[in-house]
Write a structure and sequence with these properties.
Elements: E1 3-6, E2 9-12, H1 13-17, H2 22-27, H3 35-50
Antiparallel strand pairs: 1-2
Amino acid sequence: MSKISYQNKYYDFDNIRDQFDPAVVEQMIGEYDTDQDFFNTYLVKHQEKFGEQFVVH
């Protein structure tokens, strides 16, 4: 499993990805060099769609 950094903590990317909004992920067509790059892009898209910061549960 890949680890990603978010708010000074590390998480398993696969566990975090389960919390993503599927419609936002669907819009993120393209290649990302790392899971961290994908996650960072998701944070921006989530903010744009919902007007609030993504929160890890």
